[in-house]
């Protein structure tokens, strides 16, 4: 029978958790330097929230793992469920999930969310909301014949900006994270913060993919987000030109721009419902760094 004992001192769990996250970070090819940059953010994430608990998962008095939870903005956040390899496939992981959900319900939280390092059957029925993907770059592939990349023009920027804000808002709503009004507010704020000087915002690349003399796709990257890393904030294809490989061409341009900026890895976040984009990134050799999953609940979202 699985039992749970809340720990007064969670330092042993925390050290092991940080080591597992670091191992995943390095496994996908990211550097020790970028991990040193990420670790303070990971610790701040764990400490965020109104209440925290770590419980030892026990079987017959023997510790077989841990479950770590937090109450965050009136929602249950599961930061870790880890079962010792020799004790897996005995139902302890599912029991830990049930315990975490009950812990949150006792505190009035009806929505549960988590970031998982890798897919796990324990959370298969939690909808995938988003995932972070990464590619460590070698030489960038060649662009398709007849396709070129150029900096986005001042004339193109306003239309691109409004279309991308609308698209981002729709993705937030479709992911189940927010209602339309809150999603639009978040989209406006995020773009304003990330592009404070528009096309001239430092360390940003905004490119147009051109074919037949026409702009057919657009790419937005931010460089040096962590040591050696660039981040894809947006890749979009004009509706009339979808399904023609221009999104792939935009991502190839992104690899070139990343290398030209002196970074070695390209990261992105893709919403879980966007299977077309996920399939594209899979085909280009991106690996999953982590996944965000959550239940549908009635509590407010941020």
UniProtKB/TrEMBL annotation:
What is the name listed in the Swiss-Prot or TrEMBL entry for this protein?
Ribosomal protein S18 acetylase RimI-like enzyme
Keyword hit for Metal-binding: no
| Keyword tags | Acyltransferase, Ribonucleoprotein, Ribosomal protein, Transferase
Q: Where does the record place the N-acetyltransferase domain?
A: 10-162, 155-302
**One GO cellular component, as annotated:** ribosome
Q: Which domain of life is it from?
A: Bacteria
InterPro entries on file: Acyl_CoA_acyltransferase (IPR016181), Bact_Acetyltransf (IPR050832), GNAT_dom (IPR000182)
Which organism does this sequence originate in? Longispora fulva
Care to name a GO molecular-function term for this sequence? acyltransferase activity, transferring groups other than amino-acyl groups
């Amino acid at each position: 029978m699985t039992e749970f004992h809340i720990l007064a001192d969670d330092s042993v769990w925390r050290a092991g958790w940080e080591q597992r996250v670091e191992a995943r970070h390095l496994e996908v090819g990211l550097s020790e330097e970028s991990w040193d940059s990420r670790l303070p953010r990971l610790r701040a994430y764990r400490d965020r929230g109104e209440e925290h608990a770590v419980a030892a998962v026990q079987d017959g008095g023997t510790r077989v793992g841990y479950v770590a939870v937090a109450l965050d903005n009136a929602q249950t956040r599961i930061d870790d469920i880890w079962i010792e390899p020799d004790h897996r496939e005995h139902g302890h992981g599912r029991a830990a999930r049930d315990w975490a959900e009950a812990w949150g319900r006792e505190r009035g939280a009806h929505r549960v969310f988590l970031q998982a390092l890798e897919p796990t059957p324990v959370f298969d029925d939690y909808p995938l909301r988003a995932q972070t993907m990464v590619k460590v770059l070698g030489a960038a592939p060649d662009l398709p014949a007849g396709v070129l990349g150029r900096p986005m023009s001042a004339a193109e920027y306003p239309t691109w900006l409004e279309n991308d804000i609308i698209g981002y808002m729709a993705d937030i709503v479709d992911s189940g994270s927010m209602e339309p009004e809150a999603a639009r507010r978040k989209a406006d704020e995020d773009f304003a913060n990330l592009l404070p000087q528009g096309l001239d915002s430092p360390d940003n690349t905004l490119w147009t993919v051109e074919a037949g003399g026409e702009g057919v796709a657009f790419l937005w990257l931010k460089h040096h987000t962590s040591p050696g890393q660039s981040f894809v904030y947006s890749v979009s294809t004009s509706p009339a030109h979808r399904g023609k490989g221009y999104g792939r061409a935009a991502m190839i341009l992104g690899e070139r721009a990343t290398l030209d900026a002196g970074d070695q890895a390209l990261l992105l976040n893709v919403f879980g419902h966007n299977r077309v984009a996920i399939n594209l990134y899979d085909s280009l050799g991106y690996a999953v760094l982590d996944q965000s999953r959550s239940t549908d609940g009635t509590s407010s979202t941020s």
